[in-house]
Each structure stands twice: as C-alpha cells, then as structure tokens.
Write a structure and sequence with these properties.
Layout: H1 4-18, H2 22-28, H3 44-50, H4 53-81, H5 95-110, H6 123-133, H7 135-152, H8 155-172, H9 177-193, H10 195-202
Helix pairs in contact: 1-4, 1-5, 2-4, 3-4, 4-5, 4-6, 5-6, 5-9, 6-7, 7-8, 8-9
C-alpha cells in the first residue's frame, strides 16, 4: 500500500487546484458576479449565457486544463516514482490511485474550498481530468454528451447522461472494482449537482442553451 500517502497528497493538491473558480473570475473581470445571474452557477454554460461565447470557451478551457494538469501530473509522478508503474494501468491493483485523484478534481470543482464549498457542476473539469487519466474515457464521455445535448440543446441533459456513463466506461475498459468506486461517487455527485436542472427537465421548464448577446451587436 505504498501509494496511499502519495495518493492522498495528490488528491489534496487536485482538490485545491480544481477548486479555483475560473468562471467566476472571468465573469468578475467583466463586472458580473455570475453567482447572481442566470442559474447562479460558475460553470461555462452559465458564464456563456451571462457574458458570451468567448467567456464560455475560456472558462471551459481553463476548467478542463486544471483537471487535465492534475491527473496528468499525478500519472507522471506515480510512474516516475514507482518501479511497478505498470500496475497503474486499467484493471490492475493500483489503478484506484488515479481514479481517486480524478474524483478529487471533480469534487474540488463542485465543492470549491474558495467559495464556501459551493461551485460548478463538474463537467468541464471532469472531461479534462479524464483526458489526463485515460483519453478513452474522455472521448466516451464527450460522445455521450454530444448525443444527448446537440439535438436537444439541453446541456444539463447531456451532462447528466455523461456523468451516469462514467462508471460504465471504466467497467467496459477493464478498471478494477476498487477504481470504479470513486467513479460511482463522481457520477452521483455530478447528477446531484444537476438536481435542479433534472427537476426542470422533468417539468418541461429547462431552458435550451444560447449565448448572451451584447445589446450593441443585436442592433
């Protein structure tokens, strides 16, 4: 169990790094407190509705990048530090280590330590962290998201379905049961974060996604 302490350290770093609320900071640079506009969420979707496409894109990029950096660096550090680095591969006894780091990334974003344990909904950071963990998972999540979000323009529907598919992808790709457990926690957390959206979807009250347009551009 020599990976326990390094894993705990990596998880702590991932939690605090991924807790950085880039969406809120970007919106604040334009004089908007995104927590009090639209859905009140700090993620790319609400930033896009409140500020515009460029802000949504930058938020998505930064949120995804912080997740990718944490899991990517954890993979590199574990591989460089342990002779039996092959055991970090899917289906091996230690693949749980990176799965835990992945979970810390998403939980850090959803329960940001800088915002009183409030935050975003974990989609962008989850995709980025999946790229650093296993690109096959990342593109699997993206595929599910697009299948449900593009035709409907309900980002929350695509996001929730992608979250539910996360543990399924890890099982399909041969991850050990211990590694699947953190993914189940992440999936439940992300679905919980979308509980308001799910309620609106069920009652046909959810808004379809559209970008904010400055008044001057519409004239």
């Amino acid at each position: 169990m020599k990976l326990v302490i390094p894993t705990l350290v990596a998880c702590a770093i991932a939690y605090f790094v991924c807790g950085i609320p880039f969406g809120m900071l970007i919106a604040r640079s334009r004089g908007v407190d995104v927590r009090h506009t639209g859905s009140g969420n700090i993620g790319a979707t609400n930033v896009g509705r409140s500020i515009g496409a460029w802000a949504a894109g930058l938020t998505l990029l930064l949120d995804a990048s912080k997740g990718w950096a944490c899991t990517g660096l954890a993979t590199w550090a574990f591989s460089a530090s342990f002779a039996d680095a092959a055991t970090l591969a899917p289906g091996q006894p230690f693949d749980w280590a990176l799965a835990c780091v992945y979970g810390a990334c998403v939980l850090g974003h959803v329960f940001s330590p800088y915002l009183g344990f409030h935050g975003g909904k974990g989609i962008s950071v989850g995709f980025g962290a999946a790229l650093g963990l296993d690109p096959r998972i990342a593109f699997g999540l993206l595929a599910v998201f697009l299948v449900f979000a593009l035709p409907t323009r309900f980002v929350s529907l695509g996001s929730s379905c992608a979250a539910v598919s996360l543990p399924i992808w890890t099982i399909v790709l041969g991850y050990s049961p211990v590694a699947v457990a953190p993914m189940l926690v992440v999936a439940a957390c992300v679905v919980w974060a979308h509980r308001g959206n799910i309620h609106k979807l069920l009652h046909h009250e959810e808004k379809r996604f559209s970008f904010h347009h400055d008044e001057g551009k519409s004239k």
